[in-house]
Amino acid sequence: MTKKQSLLDLPISPLGYGCYALSGAYGAKLEEAEMIRILKHSYELGIRFYDTSSSYPDAEEILGKATKPFRNEITIASKVGLAAGNKVNLSKEFVKASCETSLKKLKTDYLDVYQVHYHDPNTPVDETLEALESLKQDGKIRCYGVGHLPFDKTIEYLDLGEISFVLAEMSPVSTCRYRELHQLQARYDFKIIAFSITGRGLLSGTINSSTQFTNNDIRSIDPLFKKSRLISGMRIAEKLREIGNRHGKTPVQLAISWTIQNPGVIVGLTGPTDINHLEENSLALNWFLDKESIEEINQFIEEEENKLRKIMYEELEGILNSNLSFDYEKTYKDLIYVMEYCIENKLMEYETGVNMYMEILKCKNTDNNSLSRLNEIKSKIKSLVNLN
């Protein structure tokens, strides 16, 4: 293995820009000129870390155009893993070819960070690491990390490779993955890149149970915006508003500051497609939350999580024990809600859970066969999950 790239050599700001929303994940997609304007303005505001992926439509090309004038003053991180048809591929050949494609799209000779995006059960970890090390030796990447992997696979990468970063969803409404990873940081030399640090907008305090998302907005099916999770998130947003009022800050600014000040977090990703929201978020670059406020937020989060754990378990029982459903849309969203809980809380094998989740997504239409299939999946989940 080659020597790990010193993180001190990378220009990293505590707040970074994540390009997922630029691909239209949260609804309408912006015109290219507006995307470039936002990315350039983020640099003017002090952001120096940019996260994208080969699987975000057009995002690499647009990021490359926008950052070309200041390429050497920023850190660019991209991801590898998703192939055609949303199949995961981490073979040596695919990783190296995908990197070359990303470099061309980003109009750069090197990537500062190259990240494994998803788990590929058909490729050994050491084969993927061999590809990453080869790219590093060739100067195509400076360092590498991992993202949405099961916990045991994350540890395998940490044991076998020179992992510099691990991606983790993290905010005051999502702390599970951070707690899991932070306990490993005393043993392994890596930093956490936090994403969805504003709870995908939930912590703005402007979203409630009446909010309707368009069908092309991933939040329309996101469990974070459903049932007791939404209600809990709204309570946390209100607590952030209360504390923020004492500091003259917004709930979002509190959420960002709290997240990026947690030990082991090197950067938090925000990805607003609105200039005003970008400027609001970027104020967190020059403001630090005091220790007393952090402790107050931590205590409130702990209380909320304890309440939510019991309520969500009851919701899970209610959904899985309910009678045969004839409401397609409700069944579809309920099962996504259940599966995220099951995967996150390890109520079934990770690969089994992911496979069932993908089966649910395949049923996204309204014919009777799909509804029948959803009810079959519900029965299968019930047989696999011990509710006692």
TrEMBL record:
Organism: Proteiniborus ethanoligenes
UniProt-listed Pfam families: Aldo_ket_red
Oxidoreductase keyword on record: yes
Ranges that cross the membrane: none
GO CC entries: cytoplasm
Organism phylogeny: Bacteria, Bacillati, Bacillota, Clostridia, Eubacteriales
Keywords, sorted A to Z: Oxidoreductase
Record-given protein name: Predicted oxidoreductase
Cross-referenced PANTHER family: AFLATOXIN B1 ALDEHYDE REDUCTASE (PTHR43625), ALDO-KETO REDUCTASE YAKC [NADP(+)] (PTHR43625:SF40)
Molecular function in Gene Ontology: oxidoreductase activity
Residues of the signal peptide: none
Span of domain NADP-dependent oxidoreductase: 14-301
